[in-house]
Specification:
The protein is α+β, with helices and mostly antiparallel strands. Helices cover 46% and strands 16% of the residues. Helix 1 packs across helix 2 and helix 2 packs across helix 3.
């Protein structure tokens, strides 16, 4: 049986043959790693897709606490593929928060669909990177740990317990400490990063914590 996406699939192969990874034109203020902005991702993938007869449409759908992104690849023959919806929670319930969620979703959807890389490192791996066992514990004395505890109490029903369970689930809770306040400053900063906080809130919802 002939696939109903024959023309689109052939065109996508042609587009990916000339497609390159986007330029890393932005820096994550929390992880200090470079990444490709949505603008850079579109600059890398849209032209090759268009030249192969493919147009891209991304539709944003409101969901509880965030947005979801649906991406369509439409070939000039009329064939099309739909990807998603890709849900992304908004860390702040305001225009800025939702705008960031939309940009994040569109960027990751395009990278995934086109098979390009837009990050130096994987966000999830950075979130659960474990400190060396020989490294002495560092008690966080700056305002970041206070911000983390306040954020947890305001946005998570389980408060600090969710943070602890999240790190335990990733096998990233350091041995020898009992409370969130004792976490290394590096870990605290990573947990406060918007993309990692999204993982934590999703974890809380999935596990009904």
């Amino acid at each position: 049986m002939k696939s109903k996406h024959t023309n689109l699939a052939t065109a996508l192969v042609a587009a990916q043959e000339v497609m390159e990874n986007p330029k890393y034109d932005a820096v994550n203020p929390h992880f200090k790693n470079r990444y490709a902005s949505l603008k850079a991702v579109r600059a890398a993938v849209i032209k090759p897709l268009n030249m192969a007869g493919i147009t891209v449409i991304q539709s944003i759908i409101p969901i509880v606490g965030g947005i979801a992104c649906e991406t369509y690849l439409i070939h000039e023959s009329g064939e099309q593929m739909k990807f998603g919806p890709l849900p992304v929670p908004s860390t702040k319930q305001d225009a800025q928060g939702y705008g960031s969620a939309i940009t994040y979703a569109c960027r990751y959807a395009l990278c995934s669909i086109c098979g390009v890389t837009g990050e130096d490192d994987d966000d999830a791996e950075k979130a659960v990177d474990r400190p060396s066992p020989v490294k002495p514990l560092f008690v966080n004395t700056n305002n970041q740990v206070d911000a983390l505890i306040k954020k947890a109490s305001q946005e998570l029903q389980g408060g600090e317990a969710v943070i602890k369970e999240f790190l335990y689930s990733k096998k990233a809770w350091p041995e020898g400490i009992k409370t969130v306040r004792e976490l290394d400053a590096k870990i605290v900063n990573r947990l406060l990063a918007p993309e990692v906080w999204e993982q934590i809130t999703s974890f809380a919802k999935e596990n009904e914590i």
